[in-house]
Automatic annotation (TrEMBL):
Gene3D superfamilies: D-Amino Acid Oxidase, subunit A, domain 2, FAD/NAD(P)-binding domain. Residues 27-383 form the FAD dependent oxidoreductase domain. This is FAD-binding oxidoreductase. Keywords: Oxidoreductase. One of its GO terms (cellular component) is cytoplasm. The keyword Oxidoreductase applies. Its cofactor is FAD. It comes from Lichenibacterium minor.
Length: 426
């Protein structure tokens, strides 16, 4: 079992980075080479701005190259919860922002000719307990009142058409959701940004930002030199390094882990996942799984409340294998070829945050629902930076610091224990 991301290993590497020292002036510096940063760099360059993207490691090194491969619409939260908080109109608008985000990915893939197996496979949210199915039925009713007439219930006795597992009590199907090969997508985005004129600097961690007076301009100091940028976008996800203390106090970095099996016979996969849906389960500490383009099963979940590292990934892999065999007992004896972990940029209410603070633009906090929203927000923030404030669907949301949180998430084991207790009780 290789402790690396399947997405990285099965995509051609990005070779378009600009080598050498970093300096001079640009209209915009984008910090972070994941979906947010790359999508923003692409949109900004298309608008005619000079753009330098600064990535501490390589493009896709963060969550964008290490995720579960699902490109879903829909909230993590119940629509009714969102409606109670925001009112019907705004809740619908925010829900639709996820629909728009999947559309944005589909559009960019088509416009830029990115070969990443994008498809509208649909997402199936699976009820882990009988009472969870009743909750899904209430969610369907709430969504049918105006946000999404397309979602539909799959009762337990019809689930066999969707899934070769007896472990669930029905599901809720979101037909607009999609999937893609995340490694090929992230490289394709980077290549498109370079083709449109953006410069991408890898191995260029940003160490310091110095604002020029009261303007939006900053001197951006990297390990390879300093450049002056008229505007700066922080697209750094759950960054643990660099001058981003304000954001570290508002984002909890939470590990999520994934295993990928050896290739399965086509007939086996047809029996387990006949429609190749993107699957998630209803527990708070639940699982997500899908088939890969080369007929493997990708199976992920929180596994442990630990950050990703070589030892913690291997341990999490063993926990996930046990989870996978509970869902698909017939896979006993199947070899696992990959296991890796990544860090989710979780906000307290599990909703993204984007805007401008102290002259810096930012977009982050997708809380595990970001393959589509990060892409969408890259485009949206490019529009915001060009003067269209209304382009940001998350604008105006308060974002206080999390009390007692100063960077390292010392409280994770407590949160994990609490979530697991909730899953046992409800
Ligand atoms: C294991 C896992 C599974 C997931 N599964 C799904 C899924 O199936 N579907 C879904 O929608 N979402 C999923 N997500 C979430 C999704 O992948 C993210 O929301 C999305 O990729 C965020 O993109 P980003 O560009 O904002 O951040 P990232 O991809 O994390 O990029 C941030 C980049 O900033 C760089 N950086 C940080 N600090 C600095 C610095 N000082 N200087 C320069 N660069 C810096 C990092 O190296 C990194 O490359 C998952 C996440 C994880 C971890």
């Amino acid at each position: 079992m290789k402790l690396a991301s399947y997405w990285h290993d099965t995509a051609a590497p990005f070779t378009g980075a600009t080598p050498g020292p970093i300096g001079g002036r640009v209209d915009v510096a984008v910090v972070g080479g994941g979906f947010t940063g790359l999508s923003a760099a692409l949109a900004l360059a298309k608008r005619g701005a000079s753009v330098a993207l600064l990535e501490a490691d390589h493009v896709g090194a963060g969550a964008s190259g290490r995720n579960g491969g699902q490109c879903n619409n829909g909230f993590f939260q119940d629509f009714a919860t969102m409606e109670a908080r925001f009112g019907f109109g705004r809740a619908v608008a925010l829900y639709r922002a996820f629909d728009d985000a999947v559309d944005t990915v589909e559009r960019i893939v088509a416009e830029e000719g990115i070969d990443c197996d994008f498809g509208r496979t649909g997402k199936l949210k699976l009820a882990a307990k009988p009472e969870h199915y009743d909750k899904l039925a209430r969610a369907r009713d709430a969504l049918h009142r105006g946000a999404d007439p397309d979602v539909r219930l799959v009762p337990r006795d019809a689930l066999g058409d969707e899934l070769g597992s007896g472990g669930f009590h029905g599901g809720l199907l979101y037909p607009k959701s999609g999937s893609m090969h995340m490694g090929r997508y992230v490289v394709g985005l980077a290549e498109a940004a370079v083709r449109r004129g953006a410069r991408i600097h890898e191995q260029a961690p940003v160490r310091r930002l110095k604002r020029i007076g009261r303007t939006d301009a900053h001197d951006v100091e990297t390990a390879r030199g300093t450049l002056r940028a008229g505007q700066v976008l922080l697209a750094t996800g759950p960054s643990m390094s660099g001058p981003f203390f304000r954001y570290r106090r508002r984002i909890v970095p939470i590990g999520s882990f994934i295993v990928v099996t050896e290739p399965l016979p086509r007939a086996t996969l047809d029996a387990l996942m006949p429609r190749r849906r993107m699957c998630t389960t209803t527990q708070t500490v639940g699982h997500y799984f899908r088939a890969t383009p080369d007929d493997r099963l990708l199976f992920g979940g929180r596994a442990r409340f630990a950050l990703s590292s070589a030892t913690s990934d291997a341990k999490s892999g063993r926990i996930l294998e046990a989870g996978m065999l509970k869902v698909f007992p017939g896979l006993a004896g199947t070899r696992l070829d990959w296991c890796w972990g990544g860090i989710v940029d979780m906000t307290q209410d599990r909703l993204p945050r984007a805007g401008q603070h102290d002259g810096l633009y930012y977009s982050m906090g997708y809380s595990g629902h970001g393959t589509q929203m990060a892409t969408h927000m890259g485009q949206a923030m490019a529009a915001v930076m060009a003067g269209d404030r209304d382009a940001n669907p998350w604008g105006g949301m308060p974002w206080p610091a999390i009390r007692g949180h100063f960077g390292p998430p010392w409280f994770l084991p407590l949160v994990g224990a609490w979530y697991k207790l909730q899953d046992r009780l409800h």
